[in-house]
Amino acid sequence: MAKGATTATSEPLFSFGVIADIQYADLEDGYDFQKIRRRYYKHSLCHLQNAVEDWNGTQVQFVLQLGDIIDGFNAQHKMSESALERVMEEFKKLRVPVHHIWGNHEFYNFNRDYLAQSVLNTKNLQDHTLLSNSNRDQSSIGDTPAENYYAYQFCPMSKFRFILLDAYDLSILGRDTSTKKYQDSLHLLQEKNKNENLNSPIDLVERQFVQFNGGFSQDQLDWLDEVLTYADSNQERVVIVGHLPIHPNSSNDICLAWNYKDALTVIHSHKSVVCFLAGHLHRGGYCLDSHGVHHLTLEGIIETPPESQAFGSIYVYNDRMVLKGRGRVPDREMYYRDNCTLF
Ligand code: ZN
Q1: Is residue 1 part of a domain?
Q2: Looking at residue 224, which CATH number applies to its domain?
Q3: What is the C-alpha to C-alpha distance for residues 125 and 270, in angstroms, rounded to an integer?
Q4: Over the stretch 158-198, which tens digit does the pLDDT of each residue have?
Q5: 218-233 vs 260-268: helix axis angle to the nearest 10?
Q6: Number of domains making up the chain
């Protein structure tokens, strides 16, 4: 039996690690914006070290880092690059590849051009060959233009596909103010949020329209739709990964992606999606939606006390995924919607 697969009746097909909101900074502890939840900026590095050690002792095939790898405070102290180097030193000790997602804190520290040239751009791990059986032009489906948004896909094994989405494709963070996307995003945000401080959700009808969130462009949603159409026809299981949660029951009403409903509409029009993984909401969340898609929002490292932990390994079977969580991350069994086996 696989380590951690509590009710497994067979060996997992493969497994992978998950970790969210490390938000490392070489600073004393602080608190969240409501001054309630303690943030352990320095200790987050120890949590990462423990996670890497744990994964190196297992068979995980890869790790998903769900965004906010270093804290925005680094920018104010001109420590962005040194903080990033420090966390990457730990990730380098991993014996398997890491896929990095970009969250709001990436953009507090760096702009998109910088990130695209940095170690946090892991698009080189994308799968170029996976659509070779398609009669469509594979480059138009599988690849996304680097200058447009940061999203890609890969297949750890036949019939299982992972899609990384860019939840800050529409955002005023990280984009040059002269770009059309910045201007369009600013107009959208100001239309929905009349507060002087655009990070404030006070009096908003749609409370997710704050500056520290973002959304998906129509281009990206069309690309997602195309990939999922292929996945459906190929009878695949798909896991989608993004920094921001997209289901209200796996989040509070503030931390959602701006146009989460558009993303849900695309996902629900396909049968292949089994799970959506997110970070951003440090207390974590989970729901099984009305279409049988599991929405798992991982507990954040940054608000995890030194005596606890917050990461997990997910063991993939042909009828379910089993999350073996550590510390604040609870164990969970996530069965696929039709509960039938593929093989
Ligand atoms: Zn975040």
Answers
A1: no
A2: 3.60.21.10
A3: 25
A4: 999 999 999 999 999 999 999 999 999 999 999 999 999 99
A5: 20
A6: 1
Span 59-89, pLDDT tens digits? 999 999 999 999 999 999 999 999 999 999 9
The answer to whether the pTM exceeds 0.85 is yes
Residue 341 lies inside a defined structural domain of this protein: no
Does residue 29 belong to any structural domain of this protein?
Answer: yes
Ligand 1 centroid–CA 130 distance in Å is 31
155 CA → ligand 1 middle, Å: 26
| Residue 147 pLDDT level (bands cut at 50, 70, 90) | low
Please give the distance, rounded to the nearest whole angstrom, from the Cα atom of residue 211 to the centre of ligand 1.
11
**Distance in Å, CA 319 to ligand 1 centroid:** 31
